[in-house]
Design brief:
The protein has about 130 residues and is an alpha+beta fold. It has helices at about 40-45, 50-55, 60-70, 110-115, and strands at about 20, 40, 70-75, 80-85, 125.
């Protein structure tokens, strides 16, 4: 018997999210890639945005430069977290709008690598079927 896919989730209402299984990714429109992504400087190095040398730069100074370049939208200096900027439609800046796949998958940040084990509702994802 074929299993039915879950109903489309409301990304802002975690109670509507589906229990995560890897098979969901094959038919999802990558809704998780519309969530805010917080990264550390080490992730920025892994993503190829900054060098290891630049990682030693003061957080605010680096953040100002990355904001000006449009790479980050926010920096939380107490936690040392940078929020990756998103496209106008809310998609992650690294999500291909046609394929709905990550363009930096092998270098994606820790937050993305650990999704959905961490996040707003661990073990669940905001599944929405591709149209």
């Amino acid at each position: 018997m074929k299993r039915r896919l879950p109903a489309d989730a409301d990304v802002d209402n975690t109670a509507t999210w589906a229990r995560y299984t890897p098979r969901l990714c094959n038919s999802c429109r990558a809704v998780c890639c519309t969530l805010a992504v917080e990264v550390r400087a080490a992730d920025l190095v892994n993503m190829g945005i900054i060098s290891e040398f630049e990682q030693q730069e003061a957080g605010r100074k680096l953040a100002d430069r990355l904001k000006k370049a449009g790479i980050i939208s926010h920096y939380h200096h107490k936690k040392g977290l940078y929020t990756i900027s998103r496209k106008v439609n809310g998609d992650c800046r690294y999500l291909d709008s046609t394929t709905r796949r990550c363009t930096i998958y092998s270098q994606r940040p820790t937050t993305c690598r650990n999704h959905p084990d961490i996040g707003p509702r661990p073990g669940y994802c905001p599944y929405q079927q591709q149209r």
